[in-house]
Amino acid sequence: MTAVRIRELASPGEFALAQRVAKAAWRLRDLEAPSVADLIAITHAGGITAGAFRGKELLGFVHGFPREIDGRRAQHSHLLAVRPDAQGLGLSKRLKLFQREWCLARGIDLVTWTYDPLLVKNARLNLVRLRARARNYLRDFYGRIGGIYADLPTDRFEVHWELDSPEVRRVAAGETTPEPTLEGAVAFRAGRPPRGRRAAVEIAVGAPALYRSDPAVARRARFALRRRAEALMVRGWEASALVLAHGRAFYLFER
Q1: Predicted pLDDT at 27
Q2: Residue-wise over 84-97: b if at least 16 C-beta within 10 A, else e?
Q3: Angle separating helix axes 12-26 and 36-44, nearest 10 degrees
Q4: What is the C-alpha to C-alpha distance for residues 48 and 18, in angstroms, rounded to an integer?
Q5: pLDDT tens digits, residue range 9-19?
Q6: How far is CA 190 from CA 13, 193, 226, in A?
Q7: Rounded-to-integer distance, Cα 243 and Cα 251, Å
Q8: What's this model's pTM, rounded to 2 decimal places?
């Protein structure tokens, strides 16, 4: 089998392949898919678009652009998509680690991005396998975009990935990191946050299929997490992990 290689995209044709991967991954309409011209222009202006190639076949890609946070140079990782038939190969993590090396080589040590906090697989990648932390809750960030999200509000967690932190350096070196637990965490459902330093917030499982199979349950799950996460994050708490236990899923929040 041909090995998968991660490299930057190099031609308009390859950027067009990235657009097709995005459509397949998120089942987006043409109007909602990333523009090939925008991908090229943003990359030319200082961003990154890198792909996982098997020969000439593009299996997935990551795309980001420069930003500044409180005077600090950073990059916002806007898009990460892997073709449905290539998922489960570890490509998302490999693409993010390539982006990390690319940023560090240019003096950038912070990357941010957003993701749907009800997607358990994405949460595990971001918070557990990459050791990023979710610091902000963004309501209906993109408006209604359809695709795998159906008509649900596109609420998002915004994560901060400190590229040179000890935890992230261990991840990049391939070291085994301990599985997070809920030890010492207090269950949080409503009201004022607990007095301790760790809180657990349970979320529904089954997204994104849940968004179409049971929209009413999905909407309640969205708003329940919105209330709880906002109550914590506005007071400086961060989501540091997504813990799975006996078929249930819990965000671990820490001060």
Answers
A1: 83
A2: eebeebebbebbbb
A3: 120
A4: 13
A5: 999 999 999 99
A6: 50, 8, 11
A7: 6
A8: 0.94
